[in-house]
Design brief:
The protein has 438 residues and is mainly α. The protein has helices at residues 4-9, 13-42, 45-65, 75-93, 100-162, 165-186, 200-211, 214-234, 237-240, 245-266, 276-284, 296-306, 313-322, 329-357, 360-378, 424-428. Helix 10 runs parallel beside helix 12 (296-306). It is globular.
């Protein structure tokens, strides 16, 4: 699958795409509104950052306890129920008399359940498009997320100004309800990808299995840590420039959109594995400029350039799927999504804490420097995967006389068959047992 036309002609992809877009718009708009609401009530950069990214931090609880359900519950029912639950929680946060502690209690309750969303959604995408179409489909979702973040932050800023933060939250709740309706009516019923009932023990066992291989550990860390530290920079846009935070968020979304287009559609597949480390560095290095508190036009250009580096997620996810068996694809992608969002929440909390003691600009530069250090440390493990070839001793001996008939010359020992080498993923995982229906 190589074109967008083929992608949208695939059965179920269009409603899947629309539901994801509605949910992303709701998340963007309500997150910005909640950050403004909490900052207006408390004046705290830390609490404002946690209001926007706190649910991501709480996803670590779900990743440790609920993630095995991503492959063991019907995808349509899970996505519909999750959208309805998020809409209800957003509507509750819009109540006029709700104190700040109650806002965070709702965030803490929604976070663990939300951890299932990434695993179910992207595992279903892998089923709809199959392995060869997954990267293009994920690229389109990322591009739509960039566009929707541009529109969502812009619309959220307008709604906060014209209506109020609570009015913007109610609009976000309505978008969540629309996403639930599209999911329920547009997607077909599919059985779970794995048999058995979800449990905490299964979650821990599969997490340990995925984490046990060093190549996958490196990919997970590269997907989580540099990204999370830079989201910590973004979490300080509101205290850095309260009147222009929406503009900075929108420019960041535009940069992410352009990066995904270039990497997902324009860059040849053989080059993508070599771009993981350069893109992670591009994500962080421009933010070092915030140490000198740049003027708004320069800050906008810096954010636009840096967020091109978010496209590193595409080749890194491609690498992760190459190292993961099919029956764990949903769990692996759910672990990626939950871990990334958890690290984003930790990055926001850390950046807010540093900003409380120093300043937003100092904290942004410090988080960017930490991201550069982590990327450089992970770089040796992110070299392109090279297929292994048989050694010289394993190759069949050359046949004299140019015999092409496959026979053996008289007096010559039969050629030894080359030993089959296992791929890294096959070496690192125990043999997969066939299911009961195999």
């Amino acid at each position: 699958m190589r074109t967008y036309r083929q992608l949208f002609r695939t059965a179920e992809f269009t409603p899947f795409f629309l539901a994801s877009a509605l949910q992303m718009g709701a998340q963007t708009m309500s997150g910005l509104a909640l950050g403004h609401q909490v900052y207006a009530a408390t004046g705290s950069p830390l609490l404002s950052a946690l209001a926007m990214f706190g649910p991501a931090l709480a996803q670590v609880i779900g990743a440790a306890t609920l993630l095995s359900a991503a492959d063991r519950i019907p995808p349509r029912a899970a996505l519909t129920g999750l959208a309805l639950l998020l809409g209800l929680g957003t509507a509750v946060q819009a109540l006029p008399a709700l104190p700040v502690w109650a806002v965070f209690a709702v965030l803490l309750a929604l976070g663990p359940v939300s951890s299932l969303g990434g695993g179910v959604r992207y595992g279903l995408l892998h089923e709809i498009l199959a392995r060869e179409g997954y990267l293009l489909g994920r690229s389109v979702l990322n591009m739509s997320a960039g566009l929707l973040q541009i529109c969502g932050f812009a619309a959220g800023g307008v709604l906060v100004t014209v209506l109020s933060a609570r009015g913007a939250l109610l609009v976000g709740a309505a978008l969540y309800a629309a996403a639930a309706a599209v999911t329920r009516c547009g997607l077909g019923r599919r059985p779970p990808r794995a048999a058995g009932r979800p449990s905490v023990a299964d979650t821990w066992r599969d997490n340990a299995r995925l984490w046990s291989a060093a190549p996958r550990r490196t990919v997970y860390l590269a997907l989580w840590v540099p990204n999370g530290l830079i989201v910590g920079c973004e979490s300080l846009y509101v205290p850095y420039a309260p009147r222009h935070a929406g503009l900075l968020f929108a420019c960041g979304a535009l940069g992410m959109l352009v990066g995904d287009i270039l990497i997902g559609r324009c860059v040849p597949g053989r080059w993508r594995p070599r771009l993981c480390v350069p893109l992670c560095l591009l994500l962080a290095v421009p933010y070092l400029l915030f140490a000198v508190r740049p003027a708004l036009p320069l800050a906008v250009a810096t954010v636009l350039l840096a967020t091109l580096g978010y496209a590193a997620n595409l080749p890194l996810q491609e690498r992760l799927m190459a190292l993961t068996p099919a029956e764990l694809s949903g769990h692996a992608l759910g672990l990626h999504s939950s871990g990334m969002l958890t690290l984003q929440g930790l990055g926001a909390a850390l950046a807010g804490a540093v900003a409380e003691r120093t300043s937003p600009t100092t904290a942004m530069a410090a988080m960017a420097a930490a991201s550069v250090v982590v990327t450089v440390a992970l770089a040796p493990g992110l070299r392109p995967l090279v297929p292994e070839r048989p050694s010289v001793s394993e190759r069949p001996p050359a046949q004299d006389g140019g015999d092409t008939g496959g026979g053996t010359a008289p007096g010559t020992a039969p050629a030894r068959k080359p030993t089959r080498k296992l791929t890294p993923a096959q070496r690192e995982l125990p043999p997969v047992r066939p299911s009961a229906g195999a």
